[in-house]
Structures
1.
Amino acid sequence: MSENGKLLGGKENKAGTLSVLMGAAFLMATSAIGPGFLTQTAVFTEKLQAAFGFAILASVLIDMVVQLNIWRILGVSGMRAQDVGNKVFPGLGYFLAFAVALGGLVFNIGNVAGAAMGLNVVAGVPLIPGAALSAALAILLFLNKEMGKAMDKFAQILGFLMIALVFIVVVKTQPPVALALQETVLPSKIDWMMVLTLVGGTVGGYITFAGAHRIIDAGVVGKDHLKQISAGSINAISITAVMRYLLFLAILGVVVMGHPLDPENPPASAFRIGAGELGYKAFGVILWAAAVTSVVGASYTSISFLRTLAKTIEANQRYWIIGFIVASTAIFVTVGKPVRLLIFAGAVNGLILPVALVSMLLAAHRKDIVGDYKHPLWMSIMGYIMVAFTGWMGVTSLTKILDMFK
C-alpha cells in the first residue's frame, strides 16, 4: 500500500508512479547538491582544470553501480535499509540508523548555514533570520497533508531552477567546451582520490537512501516495479551529473583565464568573476536552493532510518522530521557550525556507504528479504568492488581524522 493508497492495490496509477519516481530522483539529487557539492566542484575544477571532467565521468559511472544495487534491492524487498541491515546481521540496522541520523543532523547544521548564506547574498538577510526563514519553509512542506507530494514538487522545482541558473552562467563564462569534452574522455591527469571523494559526496551517507526510502514510502516496490526503480535510480544520478558538469564548465571558464578563486568561498568568487554582480546573485539563489533542498532531504531520510526502530517515531514521523529541522537550526543559531563535529561526522559518513552496500549485496541472495528475485551477477561483482574502494577510502579518512584529534 502506498502513502496515498493509489499506487498499489487495484489498477496501478502509472502517472502517479512516474511522479513518485521523478520526485524520488530529484530528492536524491538535490540532497547530493548541497553547499559542500558547490564548494567541492569549484576547488577541484581549479586544481585539475579541464581534466576534472574525467573525474566527474568516472564518479558518475561508479555512482550508478552503487545506486542501482541499493535501489533495486531495497525496492524489491520493500524494506528500508535499516530493516534489511538487521535481517542480514542483527544490530547492523541499528548502527546504520544511528550513523545516518548523527551524520544527517550534523550536516544539516551546515545545510541550514548554507541556506542562510544564500539569502544573505541574494537579499542581504542577516544569517540568523535567514536560517529561521529557510527552516520555516522546509517545515511547511512537512506540515502539508500530502507531505510526500509536496516534497517531490519542491525538489523538482528547485532542481530545475539550479540547473537553469548554472547553464546561464556557463553561457556567460564561455568555457573551452571542446577541451573539456576531450579531457573528460582522454584526461591529461587523473586523481583517483578525487574521484572517490566525489562518489562519497554524491551517494555517501544518507544521500542514496533519500530516493530509495521515498519510493518505499510511496509503495513503488516489488519485482513488478523493477524496471521503473532502475530507471529512477539512473535518472537521479543523471540529474546530479548534469548539475556537476554544468557547474564545472561555468567555473572552468573562469579558471582557464588565470583568475584565482577566493579560498574563503571558491564558487561564489567564480560566479562573481565570470558573470559580475548578477552572477553573484545567481550563485546566492543556487546556494539557497541547494542548501534548503538538502535540509529537506537530510531531515526526511534521517528520520526514515529511525522510524521503524520505535513505534512513536513511526506514528509521528512528520513531527520528528520537523523537530530534526528545528534542532539543526537551533544548533546553528546558538553554536554556529561545530567544525570538529562536522569533520568527525564526515569521516563516519564515509563508512556508511561501504557498510550499507555490503549489507544490501548480502541481502540480494536472501529469499526471506528479496523472495525469488535474482540479482544480476555483474551488479554484485561491481558492487563488491565499490565496497572495497569506498571502504578503503572511509577507513583512511577516519584514521586521518582520529590522528587530528589526538
2.
Amino acid sequence: MDGPEDGAPAHRPQTLLLNFLGSLVLDEDLPPLPSSVLLDLLADLGVAEAAGRATLQRMTQRGLLERGQVGRTAEYSLTPRIDSVLRRADQRVSSPTPFEHPAGEWTLLSYSVPESRRDLRHRVRAALTWAGFGGVRDGLWLAPGTVDVAAVLAPLTDAAGLADAFSARPLPGTDVAALVHRAWDVPAVHDAHTWFVRTWRRPPRVAGSMAQFTLLGADWLHLLQTDPGLPGEHLGPDWPAPASTAVYRRAREALAPAARAALERSLRAAGRVA
C-alpha cells in the first residue's frame, strides 16, 4: 500500500486482523482460515511476513485464535474469547449514531490504585480510555452517556472494588464545553474526524479489496476510540462527527461486496470452499 499520509493512524497487525475478523468472518459460517489468507492480507497492508506470523502466534497464545493443522498448512478459527471481544466492539462500530448520547447524560467515575501497583494503574487507565472516559483530574474520570463500568473493568480481576461510578447530569451554570476541553484534547479529536472524512470520502488505494475494507474498519475503530461521543452541541455548529458517520456508512456499503467476494476467492483457491 502507499505510505501513510500525515495524520494517518499507525495500526498494529493485531488491530488489523481483529478488524478483518470482525467485519468479514464473524457470523459468516466460514471454515478455518489458512495462514496464507491472513498473511497475504497483512502483506497488502504493509506488514512483513515475519511480523504477521509473530502476530498469529501471539493471538493464539492469548486465546484469541485457535490454531489447527491440515497437512503442512496452519489454519486459524475464532475462539469464544475473540468472539466476545468482536461482538462487544460491533455494538458501537455498527451503531447508526456512534457519537451520540442522551443529552446531558454522563458517567462520573472515581478510582484509587496504590502507588505500588503502577502496572494495574496503567491497565485501568487504558480500559477507561477505551471505554470513552477522559480524565478531569487525578482519579476522577468522565464519559459521555451511560457506561457499563462493571463490564469495562470486569477483565481486570485485580481491579475489583477500586472504582466507584455514578450516573451524572451537569447542574445549571456548569460550563460543559470548558469541562469537555479539560478532559479531552478537543482539537485533536476534531482533526481525527477531518482526516477520516478527507481520506475515506474517496477511499485510498490499497492492494486488495479485503485490505481496503480492513483498513476502513481499523481507521473507523481508531476514530471511535478517539471520540467517545463528545457533545457536539457544546462544540460548535460544525462539529464533524455526523460527517464522519455518513462517510463511513457510504464507504462500507461500497467496499463490502468486493471484500467478501475476494475472501471467497481466497478460500476457494486454498481448497477451503467449493
